[in-house]
Amino acid sequence: RRSRRRKSVAIAYEPGQGDGAEPRRARWEPRDWREQLERIREMRRSRDAPVDEMGVQKCYDSSAPPQVMRYQVLLALMLSSQTKDQVTSAAMLRLRRRGLTVDTVLQMDDETLGQIIYPVGFWRNKVKYIKQTTAILKQKYGGDIPSTVEELVQLPGVGPKMAHLAMHIAWDSVAGIAVDTHVHRISNRLKWVKKETKHPEETRVALEDWLPRDLWKEINWLLVGFGQQTCLPVNPRCSQCLNQDICPSAKRL
């Protein structure tokens, strides 16, 4: 008589798991985030926020040699800290009229550079950082900018947000999420972080833990413009926001 064999049930493990391993916990993600994101895309469809018209991606000379273009991107990012897009754009235009390259900046004295970039925020510090960083680029990188976040943040006056945006814009590479004050504020308002974060770097780590990587490049552009037009730092325009009914922080009328 043919023996009946009990069918064995295959147990599927997550990659990296083996016999006796604990099942991997489901990754946390915010409630309603996909619908919230789609509605923000709808609100940003017209692309008419300051970041769209005068953001860093609009400040460099797209006809310049790639190395010069990348340098201009980095300088625009350095100028943009604590500064409105309109002011950064105007300062970059004045610099470009003088011929904005590593060599022209190194040949420029501090007073002249300061007069050109004024009134960007903390312009005196930025004169110092721009001259220091430009000298390093000339000596260490042949006039180009570094191609990794780790090297970029070592440059004077360059923080993580600038480094990630430089990777996005100058090198067309997504190494992480660029988190500025708008992304930081809105991520906390939407509860896109598991617990409240105090600083943009904390927010970047929290977002990268759950947000699909194919959205990392888009999220900065979306949220910055959304923060400039609707989700304002003070008195957000909740009545005009499509997410009013599913935003945990909405002021409902």
UniProtKB/TrEMBL annotation:
DNA repair recorded as keyword: yes
Which PROSITE patterns does this one have? ENDONUCLEASE_III_1 (PS00764), ENDONUCLEASE_III_2 (PS01155)
Does Lyase count among this protein's keywords?
Answer: yes
Q: Which family does it belong to?
A: Belongs to the Nth/MutY family.
Q: Which GO terms describe its biological process?
A: base-excision repair, AP site formation; nucleotide-excision repair
- The kind of enzyme this is, by top-level EC class, is lyase
Protein name as annotated:
DNA-(apurinic or apyrimidinic site) lyase
Organism of origin: Dryoscopus gambensis
Q: Which gene encodes it?
A: Nthl1
